[in-house]
Amino acid sequence: MDTLSGTAIEGSDVFSTGGQTRSKFYSSVQFYKDQVHGVTGSGIGVYMVMPGNAYETSSGGPFFRDINNQDMNSGHMITQPFRTGFFGPYAMVFTSGIAPSASLDTSFFSNLGLTGYVAASGRGTVKGTISGVASGFTVMVGLDNIGAQYWGIVSGTSYTITGVKPGTYTATLYKKELEVGTGSVTVTAGGTTTLNLASTESIKTNIWQIGVPDGTPSGFLNTDKIETMHPSDSRMSAWGPVTYTIGSSSASSFPIAQFINVNNPTTIKWTATSSQTGARTLRIRTTSSSPAAPTKIDSRGVTRGTWRGYNLIYEYSIPSGTLITGSNTIIITVISGSSGDTFLSPNIVYDSVELY
Protein backbone atom coordinates (compact mmCIF):
# COMPACT_ATOMS: atom_id res chain seq x y z
CA MET A 1 0.00 0.00 0.00
CA ASP A 2 1.33 3.46 -0.89
CA THR A 3 0.18 6.94 0.13
CA LEU A 4 -1.18 8.05 -3.26
CA SER A 5 -4.70 6.84 -2.52
CA GLY A 6 -4.54 7.70 1.16
CA THR A 7 -6.04 10.53 3.16
CA ALA A 8 -3.77 12.75 5.24
CA ILE A 9 -4.71 12.29 8.89
CA GLU A 10 -1.85 14.16 10.56
CA GLY A 11 -0.03 17.10 9.04
CA SER A 12 0.78 16.31 5.43
CA ASP A 13 2.94 13.27 6.09
CA VAL A 14 0.79 10.57 7.76
CA PHE A 15 -1.83 8.89 5.58
CA SER A 16 -4.61 6.34 6.03
CA THR A 17 -6.13 3.98 3.48
CA GLY A 18 -8.73 1.48 4.58
CA GLY A 19 -7.83 2.10 8.21
CA GLN A 20 -4.14 1.30 7.74
CA THR A 21 -1.55 4.05 8.04
CA ARG A 22 1.63 4.88 6.13
CA SER A 23 4.25 7.58 6.56
CA LYS A 24 7.84 8.43 5.75
CA PHE A 25 8.48 8.21 9.49
CA TYR A 26 7.84 4.46 9.67
CA SER A 27 10.99 3.63 7.71
CA SER A 28 13.15 4.61 10.67
CA VAL A 29 15.77 2.30 12.19
CA GLN A 30 17.86 3.03 15.27
CA PHE A 31 21.30 4.32 14.34
CA TYR A 32 23.22 1.52 16.01
CA LYS A 33 21.30 -1.11 14.02
CA ASP A 34 21.36 0.74 10.73
CA GLN A 35 24.23 -0.22 8.45
CA VAL A 36 22.27 -1.07 5.29
CA HIS A 37 18.82 0.02 4.17
CA GLY A 38 17.21 0.35 0.77
CA VAL A 39 14.44 -0.47 -1.68
CA THR A 40 14.07 -3.19 -4.30
CA GLY A 41 12.22 -3.72 -7.55
CA SER A 42 12.22 -6.35 -10.25
CA GLY A 43 15.87 -7.35 -10.57
CA ILE A 44 17.25 -4.23 -8.91
CA GLY A 45 17.99 -2.88 -5.48
CA VAL A 46 19.16 0.56 -4.35
CA TYR A 47 20.71 0.66 -0.90
CA MET A 48 22.38 3.13 1.40
CA VAL A 49 25.40 1.62 3.13
CA MET A 50 26.39 3.32 6.39
CA PRO A 51 29.79 1.84 7.28
CA GLY A 52 31.68 2.28 10.52
CA ASN A 53 30.98 5.63 12.17
CA ALA A 54 28.87 7.07 9.36
CA TYR A 55 26.45 8.61 11.87
CA GLU A 56 29.15 10.36 13.92
CA THR A 57 28.02 13.88 12.93
CA SER A 58 24.31 13.11 13.17
CA SER A 59 22.51 13.73 16.47
CA GLY A 60 20.48 11.79 18.99
CA GLY A 61 22.72 8.94 20.11
CA PRO A 62 22.65 5.22 19.31
CA PHE A 63 18.89 4.77 19.78
CA PHE A 64 17.78 7.68 17.61
CA ARG A 65 15.84 6.75 14.48
CA ASP A 66 15.55 8.98 11.43
CA ILE A 67 13.62 9.12 8.15
CA ASN A 68 15.67 6.57 6.25
CA ASN A 69 13.85 6.86 2.95
CA GLN A 70 14.64 10.57 2.67
CA ASP A 71 17.68 11.68 4.65
CA MET A 72 20.06 10.91 7.52
CA ASN A 73 19.80 14.04 9.66
CA SER A 74 16.23 15.38 9.62
CA GLY A 75 16.32 16.81 13.14
CA HIS A 76 13.01 15.25 14.23
CA MET A 77 12.90 14.23 17.91
CA ILE A 78 16.62 14.67 18.58
CA THR A 79 17.64 14.83 22.25
CA GLN A 80 21.00 16.46 21.51
CA PRO A 81 22.00 19.73 19.80
CA PHE A 82 21.95 19.52 16.01
CA ARG A 83 25.46 18.81 14.75
CA THR A 84 26.95 20.21 11.58
CA GLY A 85 30.08 19.42 9.63
CA PHE A 86 31.24 16.48 7.52
CA PHE A 87 28.57 13.75 7.32
CA GLY A 88 29.43 10.16 6.44
CA PRO A 89 31.12 8.71 4.53
CA TYR A 90 28.31 6.56 3.23
CA ALA A 91 27.44 5.21 -0.19
CA MET A 92 24.52 4.49 -2.49
CA VAL A 93 24.94 0.94 -3.79
CA PHE A 94 23.06 -0.57 -6.76
CA THR A 95 22.55 -4.33 -6.82
CA SER A 96 20.42 -7.00 -8.48
CA GLY A 97 18.15 -6.84 -5.45
CA ILE A 98 20.31 -8.55 -2.85
CA ALA A 99 21.35 -6.39 0.10
CA PRO A 100 25.05 -5.45 -0.08
CA SER A 101 27.60 -6.00 2.65
CA ALA A 102 27.77 -3.41 5.42
CA SER A 103 31.56 -3.48 5.07
CA LEU A 104 32.76 -0.70 2.81
CA ASP A 105 36.30 0.63 2.37
CA THR A 106 36.12 4.42 2.42
CA SER A 107 39.81 5.03 3.12
CA PHE A 108 40.22 6.71 -0.29
CA PHE A 109 38.37 9.71 1.17
CA SER A 110 41.63 10.67 2.86
CA ASN A 111 43.07 11.54 -0.57
CA LEU A 112 40.23 13.84 -1.63
CA GLY A 113 41.07 16.90 0.45
CA LEU A 114 37.57 17.13 1.92
CA THR A 115 37.10 19.71 4.67
CA GLY A 116 36.16 18.05 7.94
CA TYR A 117 37.11 14.51 6.96
CA VAL A 118 39.36 12.81 9.53
CA ALA A 119 41.35 9.79 8.34
CA ALA A 120 41.82 6.68 10.47
CA SER A 121 45.32 7.82 11.43
CA GLY A 122 43.86 10.92 13.06
CA ARG A 123 41.45 9.01 15.29
CA GLY A 124 41.70 7.15 18.58
CA THR A 125 40.14 4.31 20.56
CA VAL A 126 38.25 4.08 23.85
CA LYS A 127 38.03 0.79 25.70
CA GLY A 128 37.19 -0.41 29.18
CA THR A 129 35.03 -2.55 31.40
CA ILE A 130 31.58 -2.08 32.89
CA SER A 131 30.13 -3.26 36.19
CA GLY A 132 26.92 -3.22 38.18
CA VAL A 133 24.46 -3.75 35.32
CA ALA A 134 21.93 -6.53 35.83
CA SER A 135 22.24 -9.54 33.54
CA GLY A 136 19.81 -10.14 30.72
CA PHE A 137 20.10 -6.73 29.06
CA THR A 138 21.97 -5.47 26.01
CA VAL A 139 24.57 -3.08 27.44
CA MET A 140 26.07 -0.25 25.45
CA VAL A 141 28.51 2.63 25.94
CA GLY A 142 27.92 5.89 24.09
CA LEU A 143 30.26 8.85 23.60
CA ASP A 144 29.19 12.34 22.63
CA ASN A 145 30.32 15.94 22.55
CA ILE A 146 29.26 19.00 20.58
CA GLY A 147 30.86 17.70 17.40
CA ALA A 148 30.47 13.92 17.28
CA GLN A 149 28.88 10.76 18.69
CA TYR A 150 29.97 7.12 18.91
CA TRP A 151 28.87 3.90 20.58
CA GLY A 152 29.84 0.30 21.17
CA ILE A 153 28.01 -2.78 22.46
CA VAL A 154 29.46 -4.38 25.58
CA SER A 155 30.62 -7.98 25.19
CA GLY A 156 30.68 -9.71 28.56
CA THR A 157 31.98 -6.85 30.67
CA SER A 158 34.24 -5.21 28.07
CA TYR A 159 33.76 -2.71 25.28
CA THR A 160 35.87 -1.06 22.57
CA ILE A 161 34.94 1.97 20.48
CA THR A 162 37.24 2.66 17.54
CA GLY A 163 37.56 5.49 15.04
CA VAL A 164 36.85 8.29 17.52
CA LYS A 165 37.88 11.81 16.56
CA PRO A 166 40.16 13.56 19.09
CA GLY A 167 38.39 15.47 21.86
CA THR A 168 36.79 15.16 25.27
CA TYR A 169 33.56 13.19 25.41
CA THR A 170 30.80 12.42 27.87
CA ALA A 171 30.48 8.66 28.17
CA THR A 172 27.10 7.11 28.96
CA LEU A 173 26.49 3.54 30.12
CA TYR A 174 23.16 2.14 28.91
CA LYS A 175 21.15 -0.79 30.24
CA LYS A 176 19.22 -1.47 27.05
CA GLU A 177 18.17 2.18 26.46
CA LEU A 178 18.29 3.42 30.06
CA GLU A 179 21.17 5.65 31.14
CA VAL A 180 22.65 4.05 34.27
CA GLY A 181 26.15 5.54 34.45
CA THR A 182 28.32 8.33 33.08
CA GLY A 183 31.96 9.31 32.79
CA SER A 184 34.33 11.54 30.85
CA VAL A 185 37.11 10.56 28.47
CA THR A 186 39.66 12.40 26.33
CA VAL A 187 40.68 10.84 23.02
CA THR A 188 43.91 11.54 21.15
CA ALA A 189 44.90 10.75 17.58
CA GLY A 190 46.43 7.28 17.38
CA GLY A 191 45.95 6.68 21.10
CA THR A 192 43.93 4.24 23.19
CA THR A 193 42.22 5.54 26.33
CA THR A 194 40.78 3.30 29.04
CA LEU A 195 37.52 4.25 30.74
CA ASN A 196 35.80 1.87 33.16
CA LEU A 197 32.16 2.56 33.96
CA ALA A 198 29.89 1.41 36.78
CA SER A 199 26.11 1.52 37.00
CA THR A 200 24.67 3.96 39.54
CA GLU A 201 21.07 2.86 38.96
CA SER A 202 18.87 3.09 42.05
CA ILE A 203 17.21 -0.31 42.45
CA LYS A 204 14.55 -0.65 45.14
CA THR A 205 12.78 -3.58 46.76
CA ASN A 206 9.38 -3.16 45.15
CA ILE A 207 5.94 -4.07 46.39
CA TRP A 208 4.96 -4.32 42.75
CA GLN A 209 6.28 -3.30 39.36
CA ILE A 210 4.71 -2.87 35.92
CA GLY A 211 7.18 -3.11 33.05
CA VAL A 212 10.96 -3.24 33.19
CA PRO A 213 13.09 -0.15 33.88
CA ASP A 214 15.18 -0.26 30.71
CA GLY A 215 14.43 2.98 28.87
CA THR A 216 11.79 1.39 26.63
CA PRO A 217 8.07 0.53 26.83
CA SER A 218 8.88 -3.06 25.90
CA GLY A 219 5.98 -5.45 26.45
CA PHE A 220 3.29 -2.79 26.86
CA LEU A 221 0.07 -2.47 24.87
CA ASN A 222 0.77 -1.57 21.21
CA THR A 223 4.55 -1.35 21.66
CA ASP A 224 4.93 -4.03 18.99
CA LYS A 225 3.18 -1.79 16.44
CA ILE A 226 4.06 1.79 17.34
CA GLU A 227 7.30 1.92 15.33
CA THR A 228 5.61 1.12 12.02
CA MET A 229 2.10 2.58 12.24
CA HIS A 230 0.12 5.52 13.61
CA PRO A 231 -1.72 5.07 16.94
CA SER A 232 -5.04 5.43 15.07
CA ASP A 233 -4.25 2.46 12.79
CA SER A 234 -7.01 -0.17 12.73
CA ARG A 235 -4.44 -2.86 13.57
CA MET A 236 -3.74 -1.25 16.94
CA SER A 237 -5.40 -2.73 20.02
CA ALA A 238 -7.99 -0.53 21.73
CA TRP A 239 -6.24 2.16 23.77
CA GLY A 240 -8.56 2.27 26.75
CA PRO A 241 -8.58 4.02 29.29
CA VAL A 242 -7.01 1.04 31.02
CA THR A 243 -7.64 -0.36 34.49
CA TYR A 244 -4.70 -2.53 35.48
CA THR A 245 -4.98 -4.99 38.37
CA ILE A 246 -1.77 -6.06 40.08
CA GLY A 247 -1.49 -9.83 40.19
CA SER A 248 -3.94 -10.58 37.39
CA SER A 249 -3.35 -8.13 34.53
CA SER A 250 -0.46 -8.67 32.12
CA ALA A 251 2.04 -6.00 31.09
CA SER A 252 0.70 -6.28 27.54
CA SER A 253 -2.55 -4.65 28.72
CA PHE A 254 -0.79 -1.59 30.17
CA PRO A 255 -0.63 1.28 27.63
CA ILE A 256 2.65 2.22 25.98
CA ALA A 257 1.37 5.79 25.90
CA GLN A 258 -1.30 7.83 27.64
CA PHE A 259 -2.99 10.66 25.72
CA ILE A 260 -5.17 13.29 27.42
CA ASN A 261 -7.93 13.01 24.81
CA VAL A 262 -7.75 9.25 24.16
CA ASN A 263 -7.03 7.04 27.19
CA ASN A 264 -6.73 9.30 30.20
CA PRO A 265 -6.50 8.30 33.07
CA THR A 266 -4.80 4.96 33.75
CA THR A 267 -6.03 3.20 36.90
CA ILE A 268 -4.00 0.72 38.95
CA LYS A 269 -5.73 -1.51 41.52
CA TRP A 270 -4.19 -3.90 43.99
CA THR A 271 -4.78 -5.56 47.33
CA ALA A 272 -2.20 -4.63 49.96
CA THR A 273 -1.18 -6.65 52.98
CA SER A 274 -0.59 -4.91 56.29
CA SER A 275 3.17 -5.00 55.71
CA GLN A 276 2.76 -3.13 52.41
CA THR A 277 1.07 -0.06 53.85
CA GLY A 278 2.73 2.90 55.54
CA ALA A 279 4.77 5.59 53.79
CA ARG A 280 5.64 4.50 50.26
CA THR A 281 6.92 5.93 46.98
CA LEU A 282 5.37 5.63 43.54
CA ARG A 283 8.04 5.78 40.83
CA ILE A 284 6.94 6.41 37.25
CA ARG A 285 9.57 6.16 34.56
CA THR A 286 8.70 7.69 31.22
CA THR A 287 10.63 7.57 27.98
CA SER A 288 9.00 10.86 27.00
CA SER A 289 8.23 13.72 29.37
CA SER A 290 5.70 15.16 31.86
CA PRO A 291 4.92 17.04 34.89
CA ALA A 292 6.82 20.35 35.17
CA ALA A 293 7.59 21.14 31.57
CA PRO A 294 10.91 19.55 30.59
CA THR A 295 13.09 20.60 27.70
CA LYS A 296 10.93 20.58 24.58
CA ILE A 297 11.75 17.98 21.95
CA ASP A 298 11.07 18.99 18.36
CA SER A 299 8.38 17.04 16.47
CA ARG A 300 5.49 14.80 17.43
CA GLY A 301 7.07 11.77 19.04
CA VAL A 302 4.98 8.68 19.52
CA THR A 303 2.71 9.33 16.50
CA ARG A 304 5.73 9.22 14.19
CA GLY A 305 7.11 5.87 15.26
CA THR A 306 9.40 6.63 18.18
CA TRP A 307 9.20 6.60 21.96
CA ARG A 308 12.67 7.97 22.57
CA GLY A 309 12.86 11.01 24.85
CA TYR A 310 14.81 12.02 27.93
CA ASN A 311 13.98 8.97 30.12
CA LEU A 312 12.63 10.99 33.02
CA ILE A 313 11.78 9.61 36.46
CA TYR A 314 8.97 11.00 38.61
CA GLU A 315 8.67 9.90 42.22
CA TYR A 316 5.60 10.64 44.33
CA SER A 317 5.67 10.27 48.11
CA ILE A 318 2.63 8.51 49.53
CA PRO A 319 2.18 9.53 53.19
CA SER A 320 1.65 6.97 55.92
CA GLY A 321 -2.04 6.29 56.40
CA THR A 322 -2.92 6.70 52.71
CA LEU A 323 -2.57 3.06 51.71
CA ILE A 324 -4.78 0.61 53.56
CA THR A 325 -4.79 -3.12 54.15
CA GLY A 326 -7.04 -4.44 51.40
CA SER A 327 -8.10 -2.74 48.17
CA ASN A 328 -6.18 0.32 46.95
CA THR A 329 -6.43 2.40 43.80
CA ILE A 330 -3.93 4.71 42.11
CA ILE A 331 -5.09 6.92 39.25
CA ILE A 332 -2.42 8.34 36.91
CA THR A 333 -3.60 11.38 34.97
CA VAL A 334 -1.78 13.28 32.23
CA ILE A 335 -1.96 17.04 32.75
CA SER A 336 -0.83 19.88 30.52
CA GLY A 337 -1.29 23.55 29.82
CA SER A 338 -1.38 22.68 26.13
CA SER A 339 -4.02 21.00 24.02
CA GLY A 340 -4.34 18.91 20.87
CA ASP A 341 -6.69 16.59 19.03
CA THR A 342 -6.82 12.86 19.87
CA PHE A 343 -3.31 11.41 19.49
CA LEU A 344 -1.76 14.86 19.19
CA SER A 345 -3.04 15.75 22.64
CA PRO A 346 -0.42 15.97 25.43
CA ASN A 347 0.85 12.51 26.33
CA ILE A 348 3.49 10.45 28.07
CA VAL A 349 5.19 7.20 27.06
CA TYR A 350 5.73 4.71 29.88
CA ASP A 351 8.88 2.78 30.68
CA SER A 352 7.74 1.29 34.00
CA VAL A 353 5.76 1.98 37.16
CA GLU A 354 6.99 0.83 40.57
CA LEU A 355 5.70 1.02 44.14
CA TYR A 356 8.24 0.57 46.91
UniProtKB/TrEMBL annotation:
It comes from Rhizoctonia solani. One of its GO terms (biological process) is pectin catabolic process. It is found in: Secreted. Keywords: Carbohydrate metabolism, Cell wall biogenesis/degradation, Disulfide bond, Lyase, Polysaccharide degradation, Secreted, Signal. The keyword Lyase applies. PANTHER family: RHAMNOGALACTURONATE LYASE-RELATED. Residues 122-195, 207-355 form the Rhamnogalacturonan lyase domain. It is an enzyme of class 4 (lyase). InterPro entries: Carb-bd-like_fold, Gal_mutarotase_sf_dom, Galactose-bd-like_sf, GH-type_carb-bd, RG-lyase_II, RG-lyase_III, Rhamnogalacturonase_B, RhgB_N. GO terms for molecular function: carbohydrate binding; rhamnogalacturonan endolyase activity. Its EC number is 4.2.2.23. Residues 6-116 form the Rhamnogalacturonase B N-terminal domain. One of its GO terms (cellular component) is extracellular region. Its main location: secreted. Belongs to the polysaccharide lyase 4 family. It catalyses: Endotype eliminative cleavage of L-alpha-rhamnopyranosyl-(1->4)-alpha-D-galactopyranosyluronic acid bonds of rhamnogalacturonan I domains in ramified hairy regions of pectin leaving L-rhamnopyranose at the reducing end and 4-deoxy-4,5-unsaturated D-galactopyranosyluronic acid at the non-reducing end. This is rhamnogalacturonan endolyase.
